[in-house]
């Protein structure tokens, strides 16, 4: 199992924390996948039988700034080049405009999209279901994973599910 996975989410949801936890420092190989993805590689997760290249999607998660069409189109084309998308949200904050901005763009993406609900160490379990439901009626997610990137909760399970998808 190997492939390219984009990770997207508004600032401070925990994308870097997650990547730092799961990703090895060593960049093993470069695939001949589209050129445009190469300079956005953030890290590679490797096991004996799998390799997942994580791609950053800059531009699309900055709804505050006025984006040129180029940035948005570039981010969108990245989303269409990868094999799966991880959309990370923050369980401690209600769905907001930053999330909705991304969701609107994800509606054009014809790839499996995983909803990653991060920071579950900070919320009561009873609050999780309504939180997830609030996102699920906006988009058809392949799978939903509540995790804590900081504490490592459910991160291995998420990775296994992503690898299986590739
Ligand atoms: P990014 O902007 O999406 O890359 O977010 P960062 O990875 O930089 O994280 C933003 C802040 O959230 C940092 O202070 C992290 O320590 C914190 N954070 C990330 N993941 C978790 C988590 O699972 N639980 C808690 N409590 N804090 C987290
Ligand atoms: Mg970051």
TrEMBL record:
Presence of the UniProt keyword Nucleotide-binding in the record: yes
Stretches assigned to the Era-type G domain: 1-166
Keywords on record: Cell membrane, Cytoplasm, GTP-binding, Membrane, Nucleotide-binding, Ribosome biogenesis, RNA-binding, rRNA-binding
Main location: cytoplasm
GO molecular function: GTP binding; GTPase activity; ribosomal small subunit binding; small ribosomal subunit rRNA binding
Binding site for GTP: 9-16, 56-60, 118-121
Subcellular location: Cytoplasm; Cell membrane
GO CC annotation terms, alphabetical: cytosol; plasma membrane
Region (G4): 118-121
Membrane topology category: Peripheral membrane protein
Keyword match Cell membrane: yes
Residue numbers spanned by region G3: 56-59
Region (G5): 147-149
Highest taxon of the lineage: Bacteria
Region (G2): 35-39
GO BP field: ribosomal small subunit assembly
Region (G1) location: 9-16
Function per UniProt: An essential GTPase that binds both GDP and GTP, with rapid nucleotide exchange. Plays a role in 16S rRNA processing and 30S ribosomal subunit biogenesis and possibly also in cell cycle regulation and energy metabolism.
Similarity section: Belongs to the TRAFAC class TrmE-Era-EngA-EngB-Septin-like GTPase superfamily. Era GTPase family.
Quaternary structure annotation from Swiss-Prot or TrEMBL: Monomer.
Name under which the protein is recorded: GTPase Era
Species of the source: Liquorilactobacillus ghanensis DSM 18630
Segment of the intact protein contained: 6 to 171 of 301
